[in-house]
Design goal:
Layout: H1 16-48, H2 53-102
Helix pairs in contact: 1-2
Length: about 100
């Protein structure tokens, strides 16, 4: 649209939130997958040694919580990136409209 109006096409530089949300989401998913695997592997070990059940529950729960927190952090960063890009686009369209109206 910018080029159709005879203007230089301006593109928003990728913000920091746009660079951080994929790794945050991947780390969250990897953490949740690790807790899922641990959940399948540990019961087999508990059959032979039931005294370790308290040890597993002491750190798997917080690990799962950390994975969900990372996942939600990634979602929040993605939404912040979307908001920033939409604001940039709206400002650019307003700028082009004001320039076109002045001529």
């Amino acid at each position: 649209m910018q080029q159709a109006l005879g203007e230089k096409a301006l593109i928003l530089k990728r913000p920091l939130t746009g660079k951080l949300f994929p790794p945050a989401m991947m780390m969250g998913l990897m953490t949740l997958i690790a807790t899922l695997v641990i959940g399948f592997v540990q019961p087999a070990k508990l059959d032979s040694d039931p005294t370790g059940a308290a040890d597993i529950g002491a750190w798997v729960g917080p690990l799962r919580f950390a994975g969900v927190a990372l996942l939600f952090t990634g979602v929040a960063l993605a939404l912040a990136t979307i908001v920033r890009s939409l604001r940039f686009q709206a400002a650019r369209i307003e700028q082009l409209a004001n320039k076109d109206a002045a001529t």
